[in-house]
Automatic annotation (TrEMBL):
InterPro entries tied to this protein: CMP-NeuNAc_synthase, HAD-like_sf, HAD_sf, KdsC_fam
Protein name: 3-deoxy-D-manno-octulosonate 8-phosphate phosphatase KdsC
Any one of the GO BP annotations: lipopolysaccharide biosynthetic process
Cofactor(s), names only, from the UniProt record: Mg(2+)
Coiled-coil spans in chain: none
E.C. code: 3.1.3.45
Annotated substrate binding sites: D20
Domain of life assignment: Bacteria
Amino acid sequence: MTQELLKRGKGIKLAVFDVDGVLTDGRLYFLEDGSEFKSFSTLDGQGIKMLMAAGVQTAIISGRKTPAVERRAQNLGIPHLYQGREDKLVVLDELLGQLNLSYEQVAYLGDDLPDLPVIRRVGLGMAVANAASFVRQHAHGVTQARGGEGAAREFCELILRAQGRLDAALAAYL
């Protein structure tokens, strides 16, 4: 965790997550009936809950649309869910208008080329460890964990640490 990342994380008011490859391992599982399922990390979910409890708003923007993501967002209490939206920067613009926030107040965690315009535009744009190499090169930082394996938790804890709230968030469980 560099000083630059901590500096970027100080003013974050909104954390935005991609799904496939970030909140999941990036694999798509299709059943014979055409339905699909996804595997989410409970570590990531806890990190998102801790971030929201500290007052940071959360959102999901995904190019794909599945009921599993809607269910996961509901389970975690993520209020802003956008699915089936390929141009993520357009979606973010809409959301920033609703929340009256600036790009500098946004952190984004992604893994592939559709995430890159947002990663490059926001105050803290990060990639997961197993993101496409071109995306990792252009992100402000890269998590040590892979997507679906604790990368979102690491991202959340970075923001909490940058804002001086991580110790209090952890102490709540002692």
